[in-house]
């Protein structure tokens, strides 16, 4: 079945460590997104990528980095520069410029200890 | 003013009731509008698109009012399984996707 996978589902990190969240899709979608969701807040865009080897900062990119070396993969690194990284991280994809529906992965819940 | 505003709720309604949510937006350039459903600790999933002419899917009806800049979602004959948070989403291109904070619905037996 086609879809988006994220791993791990739960992640615990010590302060000062970098961690990388995985996002893979086999939908052949062009665009991919990373969002962060905090309790009582809407989804906030961290980074997005329209094509391979190209990505753009979203509203809250500070302390995060991404890469898009393959169409299927869009990993997110949460660096030690991110001041408050504990959150629910969601990856999404969109088929192409004429399509609007965002398909989401199941999310990664990151907790900083 | 926030780009998208939703009443956070919770809306507590009995089974079989009709319930309606509104979502107001400030960016008149928004191109497309959607309602997503998000269950607790899960990812959002598309419920339905919203058109000016209205969009109905079974017990769910969505409406867009561009003049007053709001979208609405009506749920008839509420089921226990409808309990979730409903997010309104505005799409203005790849880089401009705005999510509301969601309205929580709790259907009570």
Structure, described:
The complex is a heterodimer of chains A (113) and B (109). Chain A is mainly beta and 113 residues long. Chain A contains no helices and eleven strands. In chain A, strands 2, 4, 5, 6, 9, 10 and 11 form a seven-stranded mixed beta sheet that branches. In chain A, strand 5 (44-51) and strand 6 (54-57) form a beta hairpin. Chain A is globular, with a radius of gyration of 13 Å. The N and C termini of chain A lie far apart (36 Å). In chain A, 36% of the residues are buried. By secondary structure, chain B is mostly beta strands. Chain B is built from no helices and eleven strands. In chain B, strand 9 and strand 10 form a beta hairpin. The model of chain B has no long low-confidence stretch (mean pLDDT 92). Classes of the chains: A mainly beta (113), B mainly beta (109). The interface between A and B is medium-sized, with 24 and 23 residues.
């Amino acid at each position: 079945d086609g879809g988006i996978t994220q791993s791990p589902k739960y992640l615990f990190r010590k302060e000062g460590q970098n961690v990388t969240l995985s996002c893979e899709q086999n939908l052949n979608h062009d665009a991919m997104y990373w969002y962060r969701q905090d309790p009582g807040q809407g989804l906030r865009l961290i980074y997005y990528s329209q094509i391979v080897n190209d990505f753009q900062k979203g509203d809250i990119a500070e302390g995060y980095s991404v890469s898009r070396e393959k169409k299927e993969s869009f990993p997110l690194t949460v660096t030690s520069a991110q001041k408050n990284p504990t959150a629910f991280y969601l990856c999404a994809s969109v088929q192409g410029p004429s399509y609007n529906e965002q398909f989401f992965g199941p999310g990664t819940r990151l907790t900083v200890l | 003013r926030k780009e998208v505003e939703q009443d956070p709720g919770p809306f507590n309604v009995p089974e079989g009731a009709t319930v309606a949510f509104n979502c107001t937006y400030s960016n008149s350039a928004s191109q497309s509008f959607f309602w997503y459903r998000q269950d607790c600790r899960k990812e959002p999933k598309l419920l339905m698109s919203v058109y000016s002419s209205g969009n109905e899917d079974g017990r769910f009806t969505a409406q867009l009012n561009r003049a007053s800049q709001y979208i609405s979602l009506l749920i008839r004959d509420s089921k226990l399984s409808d309990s979730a948070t409903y997010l309104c989403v505005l799409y203005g291109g790849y880089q401009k996707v705005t999510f509301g904070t969601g309205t929580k619905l709790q259907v009570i037996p």
